[in-house]
From TrEMBL, chain B:
One of its GO terms (cellular component) is plasma membrane. Residues 97-194 form the ABC3 transporter permease C-terminal domain. Keywords: Cell membrane, Membrane, Transmembrane, Transmembrane helix. The keyword Transmembrane applies. This is FtsX-like permease family protein. It is a multi-pass membrane protein. The chain crosses the membrane at residues 24-51, 71-98, 119-148, 168-190, 211-230, 236-261, 290-312, 332-352, 384-408, 414-434. Signal peptide: none annotated. It is found in: Cell membrane.
Length: 246, 456
């Protein structure tokens, strides 16, 4: 039997050795008459952590969804390294998200029937790993994130912060190129939110993954290296965060 | 009360207008009430017809049938008793449809200040509106289907159009029972999910079902086997006692069923297959609910198993024209009962799976975003249907066969239906249930393709 994937390895999934840049070129997206993104371009080098901020309705979640292949822009191109994400068919984009991306949502979105370790192991099981390998890797990640002894607990038996750490472990267990986080601390109190951000930024950095995070909270954004501000469907400001935690 | 009365129809209309949303569940609840009231009226109408043929002079064209007319009433009553559970179950299921989604919605209303009493009243009003719509439609379908029954003959006499028409008081009793049950199911269902302003948290490990359930059923079956050796069904008291004992044994399948599902599903969690893992975990999460979805098929399985060697006593020789007709009538009655039961079971499966699609919409969307292929959802649904179905039929058919052979030894008997009908029932049970699960694909696709504009 092959040894379980190290928490800091790619988990055996397909990744390129060269630094992989996530890029958007002139992307636009509308919902009916409402324009959510208008001619947006951005380059995010591998390993960078980027916070996307903006007022309600500015288009920040739409940008994250387009970058992650959840949505296809009406115009423009999204690419990950050499791969044109926005040109892929739905099935191929699903495969790409499964293999090369990790996701952390606002309220974790863990499966309520599965214990923590099976929730974390899910991406590996979907990728064809054996149950034993997948669970071993999941247990390692849970231990790394301070959840040793809680592997058998179900989401309803965890606190909000613990559940979010399980979601982070699930996002990183298969060694993704990019982790997308949509308001990952939105449902948490300030102290727990800081704790979760610390875990999220340090673990993605140590795993060598890119972090793209959507937030409306300055303090949360302060954990990243770069701040992109969206206003009225366009990038209003794009600057490094001085004194960023990562 | 006025808040509930004002709000309930507005919310219902808003849901129905949202074409891709949970409005489908409202339509499905009305459909389920329509089917359950149509079939309830049909089985009641059939029994009423046999009663009238027996009690009204001249109703039977051939007076020779008068002697066995009470037996027809008794057998029709037995079929009614068998079908009453799945019919009421379908009505109750319709009332619980989308309970989780509804609970979330109601929790939001609690947050903005509605009292728990107002929330319950609002849900009851919603259910009553759906049930009344279903009952009206069901009555129309029942009336429209009456001419079709003229193709069927009992007692060497084709059913006449008006024969199955119910008197007003019996119609009222049937639909009243359905309405009452739907209201009761709604109230009990809401208490189970305990609506609080903070929503519904039922994500903790469920307590395991205990093995005493199996022990109780083994004791009951053994008791019946011993009892049947020393009892006689020749007298009315003996017959009633035996049928009563048999009903308790049949009912006990529902006691052991959830435990067996738990037993079968636990080892199935040790798999690397995500669909199988999710299905097994969902069954373990609520084995009673999973069993409830197939309990009517378990009942049918028992009936199908039982009638393979069910004894039918006749007054004349087997070659006698009346005896031959009587046996044929029993076969027709059994086929109709099984057919009605299969339709009910398929509808129950459809409702349960459709309800799950909407109740788990948020999780499904999250999985889809993570890149989980939509085929996984379909495979989970198939597993969720097939595993409980296999356990239900695997338990009930052998039990039916076992008990019927014991009863059969008591009388001079001959098989009413062969293994063909048993095989057809099992095959149809699987096919209809799978079809019901597959019918949820468009609903799942609708949920996944729903592009909600987030607060971005």
């Amino acid at each position: 039997m092959a040894p379980p994937a190290s928490p800091w390895s790619t988990g055996g999934m397909t990744t390129t050795d060269a630094p992989t840049t996530l890029a958007a070129r002139g992307i636009s997206k509308s919902y009916g008459d409402v324009r959510a993104l208008a001619d947006v371009s951005i380059d995010i080098p591998r390993g960078q952590s980027v916070a996307i901020m903006g007022p309600s309705g500015s288009g920040k979640s739409t940008l994250l969804h387009c970058l992650s292949g959840i949505l296809v822009p009406d115009a423009g191109v999204v690419s990950l390294g050499e791969d044109a994400v926005s040109a892929l068919r739905d099935k191929q984009r699903s495969l790409l998200r499964r293999r090369r991306f990790g996701f952390v949502f606002q309220d974790g979105q863990l499966l309520p029937e599965l214990p923590a370790r099976e929730n974390v192991a899910l991406p590996l099981l979907l990728g064809g790993k054996s149950r034993m390998e997948a669970l071993a890797a999941a247990d390692q990640w849970l231990a790394r994130l301070g959840l040793a002894g809680m592997e058998a607990r179900r989401p309803g038996e965890l606190s909000g912060g613990q559940a979010q750490r399980v979601a982070i472990a699930r996002a990183l267990v298969h060694g993704p190129d990019v982790v997308f986080a949509d308001e990952p601390t939105g449902a948490l109190d300030q102290a727990t939110g800081h704790e979760v951000m610390q875990v999220l930024t340090t673990t993605t950095a140590m795993a060598g993954s890119t972090l793209v995070l959507v937030t409306h909270d300055d303090e949360v954004a302060g954990w990243c290296q770069r701040l992109v501000e969206i206003r009225d469907a366009m990038i209003h400001a794009d600057q490094p965060i001085t004194g960023g935690t990562r | 009360m006025s808040v509930a009365v004002n709000l309930a129809p507005r919310l219902a209309i808003a849901r129905i207008r949202a074409t891709r949303g949970a409005g489908v569940l409202d339509a499905m609840a009305v459909l389920a009430f329509t089917i359950s009231s149509w079939l309830a009226l049909t089985v009641a109408g059939g029994t009423w017809m046999f009663y009238r043929r027996w009690s009204v002079d001249g109703a039977l064209s051939d007076a020779q049938w008068a002697d066995v007319a009470p037996a027809y009433v008794g057998l029709a009553g037995f079929a009614c008793a068998l079908l009453v559970v799945p019919i009421l179950g379908l009505g109750g299921g319709a009332a619980r449809l989308g309970a989780r989604g509804r609970a979330r919605r109601l929790a939001s209303l609690r947050l903005i200040g509605m009292t728990s009493g107002e929330v319950v009243r609002m849900s009851v009003i919603e259910t009553i509106v759906q049930a009344v719509a279903g009952v009206v439609l069901g009555s129309v379908v029942f009336a429209a289907s009456l001419p079709a029954w003229q193709l069927v003959a009992f007692q060497q006499q084709h059913i006449r159009a008006g024969e199955m028409l119910l008197p007003w008081w019996l119609w009222l009793a049937v639909v009243g029972a359905l309405l009452l049950l739907s209201v009761a199911s709604t109230v009990v269902g809401l208490q189970r999910v305990s609506i609080s302003p903070l929503g519904v948290a039922r994500d903790q490990s469920p307590s395991k079902l205990k093995a005493w359930r199996l022990a109780a059923v083994v004791v009951l079956v053994a008791g019946f086997l011993i009892y049947s050796r020393f009892s006689s069904v020749a007298s009315l008291v003996g017959l009633v006692t035996t049928v009563g004992f048999l009903a308790v044994v049949i009912g006990s399948i529902n006691l052991v069923g959830p435990w067996l599902l738990q037993l079968v599903s636990r080892p199935r969690t040790r798999t690397a297959s995500v669909p199988r893992l999710l299905a097994a975990r969902r069954i373990l999460d609520d084995p009673r609910g999973a069993w409830r979805n197939v309990s009517s098929l378990a009942l049918l399985g028992f009936v199908a198993g039982f009638v393979v060697t069910m004894p039918v006593t006749t007054t004349g020789a087997p070659s006698d024209v009346y005896s031959v007709s009587f046996v044929r009538d029993v076969q027709t009655g059994v086929a109709i009962t099984l057919g009605v039961g299969l339709v009910l079971a398929a509808m129950a499966t459809l409702m349960a799976q459709a309800s799950q699609v909407f109740d788990r919409a948020q999780e499904s969307v999250a999985l889809e975003r993570m890149g989980v292929p939509s085929a996984v959802h379909a495979r989970v649904r198939r597993s969720l249907v097939l595993v409980p179905l296999a356990v239900a039929l695997g338990t009930s058919v052998p039990l039916g066969l076992l008990l019927s052979t014991v009863v059969a030894t008591e009388m001079d008997s001959f098989p009413v239906v062969g293994v063909v009908m048993l095989a057809v029932t099992i095959a149809l049970g699987f096919l209809l249930s799978l079809g019901a699960a597959e019918a949820c694909r468009p609903l799942q696709a609708g949920v996944l393709s729903q592009q909600q504009r987030r607060n971005d």
